[in-house]
Automatic annotation (TrEMBL):
LD-carboxypeptidase N-terminal domain boundaries: 10-129
This protein's UniProt keywords: Carboxypeptidase, Hydrolase, Protease, Serine protease
Record-stated family: Belongs to the peptidase S66 family.
Domain LD-carboxypeptidase C-terminal: 179-297
Pfam families, per database record: Peptidase_S66 (PF02016), Peptidase_S66C (PF17676)
Originating organism: Achromobacter seleniivolatilans
Highest taxon of the lineage: Bacteria
Protein name: LD-carboxypeptidase
Entry-linked InterPro entries: Carboxypeptidase_A_C_sf, Class_I_gatase-like, LdcA_N, Peptidase_S66_N, Peptidase_S66C, S66_fam
Amino acid sequence: MPALRPGGRVAIVAPASAGRDASDEAAEWLEARGFVAQVMPATRARMDSPYDYLAGSDADRLADLHAAFASPDVGAVWCLQGGFGSWRLLSQLDFALLRKHPKPFIGYSDITALHLAMQRHAGFVTFHGPMLAQDLLAGKREPTESHLLAMVTGQVGKGAWISPTPDAMPTELIPGVASGRLIGGNLALISALMGSPNEIDTRDSILFIEDVNEAVPRIDRLLGQLAAAGKFDGVKGVLVGNFTRLGVQMDEAQAQGLVYPLVLEQFRARGIPVLGGWPSGHGDPNLTLPLGARVTLDTGRGALRLDQAVAV
């Protein structure tokens, strides 16, 4: 995939919820870092009730995505924020257009729906990474910004290790080393697409999961649904990201530990490595992950190795 060049043009899109007038501020943020910002029209829109959680109509949000990918001048497509509604675009997404014009696509949370569809039908690496309004304008800690920019501009190559900051302290739930395609994202969105043409393909994969605002019993049910659907059968290793706002009266680090027994129940007998406490998702910092890329998970090292170039 072509890397984003210094001074390149970045299209700001809002495939899900409204950006609350953040698109111009996001453009200033990009331009302060030497890029040219192209604010797509739906980022400035907001639907009326009951669809007021959407940034513009489905047709307008879809048109923004297609225009951003089709334009030869655009070097990357960066989501303003998540929220709700990305799944509404999937049935009309032009995967042939996307395959013809691969470029860095960045987002997470509700954007997981688009990542899964692109992994299934477009076949290029996409980036589970910080969004302009939701993370970068909100001041997420380093290396949230620097790691994302290094990855999409081609500074992180084959053989590089992706390691969390020292204070993240990943938890080795099941020790081991495994290689596969990195796939996944938001657990609720992964489950929501089950039974659709865009459901997750977990064969030969390192599965990454994260979530926010899901109580422990719901996380248990979501994992159980995927297990019952056979989606854990081809998994080679598991990376457990941030699980935040679990609705319990304890700090986030302690609350994160409540998820681990649920994960271990599903994966202990499978004998595959599982690493918890990985700082990607709704926590702070939010480390970028190259979805669709071949990686090696080493729980002892507490890191991922890139086994292919992701942007050149």
